[in-house]
C-alpha cells in the first residue's frame, strides 16, 4: 500500500487532502502518527463520514519521503 504513494496519483498536505475528500476523489488517506491532532482531526472525521480507509505511517518525515517531497507531510491521499 505504501509503495503506491510513490507511483500513483496523489495529493499531499491537509488543504489538498481535505479538498479531494470533499470532491469524492480519494481512495485512501495516509496520516503520520506523529502529526499534531489539530492538523489531522478534520481529515479523520471526513474519512469516517465518507468510509475512506486510513493508513497510518510512523513519521511525518517518512510520509514526506514516500510522497517524493523533501519536507515532512502530516497527511496524503491516493486519488481514485
Automatic annotation (TrEMBL):
<dbReference type="InterPro" id="IPR004038">
    <property type="entry name" value="Ribosomal_eL8/eL30/eS12/Gad45"/>
</dbReference>
<keyword id="KW-0687">Ribonucleoprotein</keyword>
<dbReference type="Pfam" id="PF01248">
    <property type="entry name" value="Ribosomal_L7Ae"/>
</dbReference>
<protein>
    <submittedName>
        <fullName>Large subunit ribosomal protein L7A</fullName>
    </submittedName>
</protein>
<feature type="domain" description="Ribosomal protein eL8/eL30/eS12/Gadd45">
    <location>
        <begin position="9"/>
        <end position="73"/>
    </location>
</feature>
<dbReference type="GO" id="GO:0005840">
    <property type="term" value="C:ribosome"/>
</dbReference>
<dbReference type="InterPro" id="IPR029064">
    <property type="entry name" value="Ribosomal_eL30-like_sf"/>
</dbReference>
<keyword id="KW-0689">Ribosomal protein</keyword>
